[in-house]
Amino acid sequence: MKPEASARASEPIRRIAIWGWPLIAIRLFALLALLLVCVAAYYAASPFTARNPVPPFFLRLVGTISGLRVTVRGRRPAPGSFFLANHVSWLDIPALSGASGTAFIAHDGLADFGPLRWLCTLNDTVFVARNRRSTVAAQVEQIRTALKETGALTIFPEGTTSNGTDLLPFKSSLLSAIGTEDAGLTVQPVWLDYGSEAEEIAWVGDEPGLDNALRILARLRPVRVTLHFLQPLEGEERRDRKAMARSAEAAIENARNELGQAWR
Predict the structure, then answer these.
(1) Angle of helix 92-100 relative to helix 54-65, nearest 10 degrees?
(2) CATH assignment, 16-262
(3) Which of 4, 105, 134, 205 could form a disulfide with 155 if both were Cys (CB 3.0 to 4.6 A apart)?
(4) What is the radius of gyration, based on Cα positions, of the chain?
(5) Out of 143-147, 219-223, 243-247, which region has the weakest mean confidence (pLDDT)?
(6) What ranges do the domains of the chain cover?
(7) Residue 244 and residue 28: Cα distance in Å, rounded?
(8) Confidence (pTM)
(9) Rounded to the nearest 10 degrees, how much is the dihedral formed by the CA atoms of 177, 187, 164, 210?
(10) pLDDT in tens, 55-76
(11) Rounded CA separation 229/192 (Å)
């Protein structure tokens, strides 16, 4: 074992305080009750609507129960939007969906867990295999179809979660689904800003997802996030998929540099 690996293995695990467990229990009970009510409402509403309003409502309340407090700034998203956002936490999903009604593009690894796949499918999630270049063309067509059906999609071009204070390079392969010919589609970068607590909230490294979720559910303090809907990409910024990835990454980085000084 490498010395640095040994050092990481010996680091103390961030344990949940004893008073955090009752709060976790209360929140889990509330989330289960919400799930049961919203699943019934989803199937009741399905015959009467093309885009079911229950999943965004459900995700908004998931965030609220989990302690999430969302502030929205910048240009409000227009109908028919494709969002390119940085990725910090699983809380990004209830925050964005609750604010805009968006569906998501997710890695197909999530589909391995049946109940999670089922929940994601209810919100029109598009599952893609980002590491299989042979399937990119089929995935692009799948995304185009989903855009027509859902009205808004979000992709996290970093491909994974970051520590909340640094951006990972934006990947461009799946942006082939949009382009200059899609005049009615707004392509908009979104910066999710968790402020000075970003590293505490972030799900990174070897931390299991369940451990991260329990840590957040055990918090007494709310998790505050600001969604900065930045200027949509236009002209040369949408020349091709690589230009879109570079432009969105630069827009979020510039916003972090200009607006993030207050907490750095």
Answers:
(1) 130
(2) 3.40.1130
(3) 105
(4) 19
(5) 143-147
(6) 16-262
(7) 39
(8) 0.85
(9) -50
(10) 999 999 999 999 999 999 997 7
(11) 9
